[in-house]
Amino acid sequence: MVLLNAIVSGILFGGSLALLAYGLNLCFGVVQVIHFFYGQCVMLGLYIIYSATVLWHIPLIVSCLIAVAAIIILNVVVQLAVVQPLLKAPMINQFLALASIMTILENSAMGIWGATYKGVPISLPVLTIGEIYIRTSNLIAFVGCLIVVGLLYLFLNKTYTGLAIRATAQDKEMASLTGMNPRIVYVITLALVGALAGVVAAFFVPIYPVHPHFGGPFTVMAFVIVILGGMGNLAGGFLAAFIIGVVSMVVSFLTIPEGGPIAVYLIFLVVIVFRPQGLLGVRERTG
Amino acid sequence: MLKIEGISASYGELKVLHDISQEVADGETVVTVGPNGAGKTTLLRVISGVLKPTSGAIYFDGQRLDGKEPYKIVDMGIAIVPEGGRLFPGLTIYDNLKAGSYTKRSRRKFKQSLDEIFSSFPILKERQNQIAGSLSGGERQMLAIARTLMSRPKLVMLDEVSSGLAPKIVTDLFELVKAIKSQGYSILMVEQNVKKALELADHAYLMESGRLQLHGTKEDFIQSPHIKKAYLGI
Q1: Predicted ipTM?
Q2: 20 to 30 A Cα–Cα from A245, which one of A84, A274, B31, B84?
Q3: For position A282, what pLDDT does the model report?
């Protein structure tokens, strides 16, 4: 029964991870930069929601919207001020630039909110189905993230803007020759990617208290999922998110709490050595 | 309609186009022939805005277009079928066609354009939900041409539309270009298949080593001793 509970919480956790990985993947697939402060966006979102609700007494829903808007703006500003000028720079320069933003965000959070845990006091009931216990907050995050993934999928597949994003990901020059403006496509992509991080933050409010280094593990976890699923492969990333969610929860339950992350990274190492194209990936893009 | 005046262009230090001047009149088919590496593709890249010229000017319907971004040039009515078709291989045939009608001007007529394309190319209609990467070489070129027509261009530029394809498919593609020509589109073609290209041409240019060596009508070209010897094998 402990095992079953672990599997259920792993699947629920996988929902949020899928959304995070979707964002990271979208950013890599379209703009071809690695979003190195993605988890830190979630961290910042949690702090904004905390300040807005606890300190300024703004209703929770409004606070969440403010956080999503703030993270969208942050990502758009980074795209225009940092990523766009570095698009043709060596990958290592992009990497270092985005890693410095990560450090700036973490230290700013430390300076503004301090090193202690901060959280919004919300207590949601625990559901019991037979011998399985499900925290309502986890269930809401799971369902909410899946709905957002679905909406994003519809946006990408049914609108002209979504088409421009997918076409630019495939062939930027050809996309511009059909009338798509790559600069605008990039800005819209980063806005979407920021919105996803903001949404994850909103769903995390009742689950986790936040601290300045909260984001790091999520950046890395999302990164592991993206590699497992195959870079730029949205379906692969979706599947990998649930594998990682379940593995980390089950191993933690069966061994020690630290066992989960260790198992995740062992799988990651095996995949990156023996199947670098990812679980569902193809070795090379054709065409 | 299209007027190219003294265009030069380089890739870094390497100068590939030297003082090129060309014209395409309304409804006319102009063919640029020449050997591999002569700069024919580069000229189309300059016109479509992907490569900025180092000097010279290009006018389209009296409006200057050199220096403009590719997405603005498409909107002005110039669309290109790049070499090899360059489809979006992971997108469906339908989405490739929809991408063709991305500009505001063509988006309004998307349904109408799609109906026209589907009635001319029934195979694209049948297979509209398959990904473009699953098509054969000839079908890819067909889709690439159809995608270009979806933008409702005034001038269609074709870059080596026949390269690397079987003779039967090459014949079909030239028939298709002929059909497009008869619909009144202006066409600027770059070709290595000199014989077939000249059959469609109103005017032709010969480009060698980045310079225009010869300009004339189809008849001028067919009778030119240099063209006969070097390109037609007579």
Answers
A1: 0.94
A2: A274
A3: 54
